[in-house]
Predict the 3D structure of the following.
Amino acid sequence: MARRKSKKPPLPIPLRPSAVPTSNASLATTTTTPTTPHPPPKRPKLSTQKLISTYHTLNKRLSHALTTNNMALATLIRTEMSALGGLNAYQRASLKGGSERQGLGASGTWLVSHLPRTPMTLLDIGAVSGTTYAKYSFITPTYIDLHPQHPNILQQDFMARPIPPPESRFDILCLSLVLNFVPSPRDRGALLVRTREHTTENGLLYIVLPSPCVLNSRYMTHERFIEVLRCVGFGIVEFKFAKRVAFYLFRRCGGGVKGIGKIECAPGKGRNNFCVVVDG
Ligand SMILES: C[S@@+](CC[C@H](N)C(=O)[O-])C[C@H]1O[C@@H](n2cnc3c(N)ncnc32)[C@H](O)[C@@H]1O
């Protein structure tokens, strides 16, 4: 007799704009203080991957709510994010997911295998581990993150980091699983443009992305991603597809920034919406 599959417990349903009041008036009716106090909601137990993807979804919805000035919705989404454990829980899941996915430090190993053994400076943006480049004595790393998880990491928003003078620019900039974390296509483009302003002439830009961003998006392909980077002023040096992530190494080249928009380059059902838009 066929065995019945054991049912997994249901996952919390992330907030959808349609399920959430959009005006303060309707919010007021749904937030009436209950007569009997409820205990604080228990943090849902999600798998590492589910927590990461739910956080990304909420982060995108938050960005949309803020852009459309829907502050009531933004507040509700922030509450949902805190219930998951906030950025802290997301970063811990990323660290765990990274080591499950590729062995801790594997993305650093791939980058270093393409570098000459000459002294160089490196800026690791969105660094969670704080020790990725510690064993390479020819690299002087600077680690930054919005919410540091390690004493080596400076608390800093890269988008607010002042543009350095040419002599203080970095030989290498790293964006490992950061571009896909940024919620909107335009903000991703702005992030890439800013990396150029922090990189030495002929400096390198290292990008790690979940493979579906370039293999299963209706708005992005591997070729288009290389084209996007060319518009920002970086030429492709090397790339590699590992099991679940794609590694890209680019070199800064001459020319200014050119705009590139959103086009449906790989239509089809079941695709994701990863996209990068660069304003010209
Ligand atoms: C998925 S984690 C990546 C962790 C790590 N680099 C890795 O490869 O596993 C994304 C990180 O990017 C950070 N981040 C996103 N935007 C940032 C910004 N503008 N400045 C600094 N850090 C940022 C987030 O705080 C988060 O810790």
About this structure: The chain has eight helices and seven strands.
